[in-house]
Amino acid sequence: MNSHKDTYQHRGLRRNLVKELEQKGITDAAVLATIGKIPRHFFFEKAFVEWAYQDKAFPIGNAQTISQPYTVAYQTQLLEIKKRDTVMEIGTGSGYQAAVLASLGARVYTIERQEELFLSAKKKLGEMGYQGIRFYYKDGYKGLPELAPFDKIIVTAAAPSVPEVLRKQLKVGGMLVIPVGDRTGQQMLRITRMSKTEFEVEERGDFKFVPFVKGINPARKR
Questions:
Q1: Domain extents for the chain?
Q2: Among 47, 101, 109, 110, fewest CB within 10 Å belongs to which?
C-alpha cells in the first residue's frame, strides 16, 4: 500500500494550490475540484514531498518530469472531459495526469515508453484504487490503433510536428491536445476533428515540455 499519508496539512496545501491555479486563469470547476482532491504528494518520493504542492515541474527520473500543476490543469481544461469519454494519454510519466482524467470520469488508455515509469505508475495508481485506467508499455508515436477512435487524446511531451497517425485515431468531433515545437519554443495546440478529412487547429499558448521520443526504453536489469 502507499506509505504516504494525506494529512490536514496536505489538504490545506492543495486548497492553496487550487487558489493559485484560479488566479492563473484555470476556470473549469471540475478540474479545480479534482486537483483539490488528489494527493499529489503520493507521486513524489518522501524526501521531496514539500515540492508536491508548488506550481512547478519536478524530475521523476529517466529524463522525465511530473508536469507543473498549472500545465496539467490547462491541458485537462482544453480537453473538456465528459464522463465516459475515452481518452488516450501519451506519456504516463508519474501517473498524476491519468489520475486527474480518471477522477473526471474518463476511461483512460495511457501509454509510456519508459518501462520503469510504466511499472511504477501502474503500481502506484493500483494502490490508490483507480479504476478505469489501462496501461500500455509502447511507442506513443503509434498510438493505439486497435482501440481507436478516441474521444480525446492528450500528449504530455513536445513533438516537432503533429503525428498524423494520432490525428487519424480521433473520433469526428474529438480533440487532440499536444505541445508542438522544440527546446527553443513550443506551442500548445488543440486540434478538433471536424470530419473525416477536416481538422480545426487552435494555438493555445507557449509551454515547455520534455521531447516526444519514438521507440521504447526497457528497464535496466538490476
A1: 56-207
A2: 47
Read off the pLDDT of residues 132-155 as tens digits, 9 standing for 90 and up. 899 999 999 999 999 999 999 999
Q: Are 39 and 49 in contact (CB under 8 A)?
A: no
> Within 13 Å and on the Cβ side, how many CA atoms surround 55?
17
Instruction: Report if pTM > 0.85.
Output: yes
Homologous superfamily in CATH for domain 56-207: Vaccinia Virus protein VP39 (3.40.50.150)
Q: Cα–Cα distance between 98 and 184 in angstroms, integer?
A: 28
Q: Identify the pLDDT of residue 222.
A: 52
Q: What percentage of residues in the chain have a pLDDT greater than 90?
A: 85
pLDDT (tens digit per residue) in 62-91: 778 899 999 999 999 999 999 999 999 999
The single-letter DSSP state of residue 141 is G
**Contact by Cβ (8 Å): 211, 157:** yes
Burial class (CB in 10 A: 0-12, 13-18, 19+), 157: buried
Active-site residue set: 67
Strand order across the 185-193 sheet: 133-137, 107-112, 86-90, 150-155, 170-182, 185-193, 199-207
Quote the CA–CA distance of 173 and 46 in Å, as a whole number: 42
Angstrom distance (rounded) from CA 194 to CA 12: 42
What is the Rg, in whole angstroms, of the alpha carbon atoms belonging to the chain? 17
